[in-house]
Specification:
The strands form seven sheets. This protein has an eight-stranded mixed sheet with strand order 3-4-2-12-13-14-18-19, with helices on both faces. A four-stranded antiparallel sheet has the order 9-8-7-11. Strands 1-24-25 form a three-stranded antiparallel sheet, with no helix packed on it. The chain has 14 helices and 25 strands. 28% of the residues lie in helices and 24% in strands. The radius of gyration is 31 Å and the shape is globular. The model is unreliable at 452-463 and 485-554 (pLDDT under 50). The chain starts with 8 loop residues before the first strand and ends with a strand. Helix 2 (66-75) packs parallel to helix 11.
């Protein structure tokens, strides 16, 4: 910090050097895109553990492989996941006789004249309960908002499926800082106001329709309990009937509400690649909202009756996007690869592309996993492998570093009892030169025995380690140069810099002509957490009214 001279003498001030070590970027942030039972749509959401995923997206769901892949990722050592939920609306069937109308995408909730709607798509909103009250409203609040006291109300929102509650106070339909639509958009993760707010809307305390039925059932149960407590031998036939009738009414209403709201249909390529998707940051390109991701996983999303579960067209676009973002795309082998013969035949087919890419930024893994499904009484089913593989990538990066290949006996898959296809050493030897990463079942555990990235030539293959390391270096150096040039770089390309740090060559970012003075003025700094920092020592000598200063390096 600056020295304040107060008396004659010599003062020493340490001034940090302008040369700083380049900080490396994260190496195993994994992006997942798919269908979920709840959560924001087309929003890149960070999850630090599977509990975050359950809270935001509902956890495991029979209609989607996304939750299982995210679970396997964290189970095998993953630390950070970026999840994008997509939703395919159900159009109904207008040509049917009688016509089937399209169900709603979001659950509506009405309390008197106030109309609310679930914050996100899906039938999860049916389990929301909304209560309006006017308790604790003060004259000071009304004066501050510039509205009448009777125009102010409070909301209590309860998610009965997760026991999550929200309490939002001092709302109004009048034009004010606490207008209900704006306040809910800013403060509620469960509901929003449905449509435009009418300032003339009457305010009355009450509950939504299903909330009233809940209250009726609770009152009937209480009456039964109170009567038995007062007289255990009393005749409670009427009370039991009241409980039964209330429960039947609630169940019927919930069933109708669920039928009126859709969880959506299986996804299609258009959901991942919508028109103007990159400009609008939708579909796969919702990842533009994320500053960085290193691995991309697209779990199977097609209907179970389809012959394929991931479209080659989507794989091709996803690989191109990963090249643009300096990331790796992890791919499951096609679902019909149930033998070595099928795998080699389709992989080497010159007329048909069953995979969708030959990019060096993509890695294909075979076979798939056999896992117990807790939603089906732990029945063993074939499941996607890429979530667990991404977790092994993350675990290896944490324990050994990005230079260590995520393969071998140390790359064990946690929670995987068996694989869908058991490979022998000769079979493994046939697939590895093609660029197919084989998962093997050893006596101790299942493990990844390959770490190859896909490329066009069957012999000229790159390892996942090399591709990942290059991506990390490119991202790190690009950020450092752009930061140093105050963000003036608009057309970065990558070249190999001849300067080496240790035995590893660094990939540095060559910026546009606007950053040329920066490149000429400053040498590239090796990526090292132990690089020596130079500091300048300023020595100031004060003698009477004369002052002198000098600078030196140490």
């Amino acid at each position: 910090m600056p020295v304040t001279p107060t008396y004659p003498g010599v003062y020493v001030e340490e001034i940090p050097s302008g040369v700083h070590t380049i900080t490396g970027v994260a190496t195993s942030i994994t992006a997942f895109i798919g269908r979920a039972s709840r959560g924001p749509v087309n929003i890149a959401t960070l999850c630090n553990n599977f509990g975050d995923f359950e809270s935001n997206f509902g956890g495991l769901w029979l209609s989607s492989a996304l939750g299982f892949s995210v679970r396997d990722y964290f189970l095998n050592g993953g630390s950070q996941a970026i999840v994008v939920r997509l939703y395919h609306a159900d159009p109904g069937n207008p040509q049917a006789v009688p016509p089937v109308n399209a169900p709603a995408s979001k659950a509506p909730l009405t309390v008197g004249a106030l109309k609310f709607i679930a914050a996100n798509e899906g039938s999860w909103g049916v389990y929301l309960r909304v209560t309006v009250d006017q308790k604790g409203i003060t004259d000071d609040v009304a004066t501050m908002l510039g509205v009448a006291k009777t125009d102010i109300f409070n909301l209590t929102i309860n998610d009965t499926a997760t026991n999550r509650n929200e309490r939002i106070l001092n709302l109004t339909v009048k034009d004010s800082p606490r207008r209900v639509d704006n306040a809910l958009a800013a403060e509620s993760a469960l509901i929003a106001y449905d449509g435009a707010v009418d300032p003339a809307t009457a305010i009355a305390e009450g509950k939504d329709a299903l909330g009233l039925l809940d209250a009726t059932l609770a009152a009937a149960k209480k009456a039964l309990s109170d009567k038995l407590t007062a007289d255990p031998g009393a005749d409670v036939t009427a009370e039991k009937k009241a409980v039964s009738d209330a429960k039947a009414a609630l169940d019927e209403a919930v069933t109708k509400a669920l039928q009126a709201v859709s969880d959506g249909l299986p996804l299609s390529t258009a959901d991942f690649l919508p028109a103007n998707g990159q400009a609008n940051k939708q579909g796969m390109y919702a990842l533009e909202q994320a500053d960085l991701f290193n691995l991309l996983c697209i779990p199977p999303y097609r209907s179970l009756v389809d012959s394929i579960d991931v479209d080659p067209t989507l794989v091709s676009n996803a690989a191109a996007y990963c090249e643009q973002r300096r990331a790796m795309l992890l791919l499951d082998a096609p679902k019909n690869w149930t033998s070595l013969n099928t795998a080699t035949t389709q992989f080497t087919d010159a007329d048909n592309d069953f995979i969708g890419t030959r990019s060096a930024n993509a890695a294909l893994f075979f076979p798939r996993l056999r896992l117990a499904n807790p939603l089906r009484n732990n029945q063993v089913e074939t499941a996607s492998a890429i979530g667990a593989i991404a977790g092994v990538f993350a675990r290896t990066d944490t324990q050994r570093g990005v230079w260590k290949a995520p393969a071998g006996l140390s790359a064990t898959l946690t929670g995987v009892p068996q694989l869908s296809v058991s490979l022998t050493d000769p079979e493994n030897g046939e697939l590895n030169p093609l660029g197919v990463n084989c998962l093997r079942a050893f006596r101790s555990a299942a493990a990844s025995s390959g770490a190859r990235a896909r490329c066009a030539a069957p012999i000229s293959w790159l390892t996942n380690t090399s591709t990942s390391r290059c991506g990390v270096l490119r991202s790190t150096s690009r950020r450092a140069f752009i930061a140093g040039s105050n963000g003036s770089c608009s057309s970065p390309t990558t070249t190999r810099c001849g300067r080496r740090y240790g035995s590893m060559s660094a990939l540095l970012c060559t910026t546009c002509s606007a950053a040329a003075p920066f490149r000429a003025a400053r040498r590239a700094t090796p990526i090292s957490s132990n690089a020596t920092r130079k500091r300048r020592r300023r020595t100031t000598s004060i003698s009477g009214s004369s002052t002198s200063s000098s600078a030196s390096h140490r």
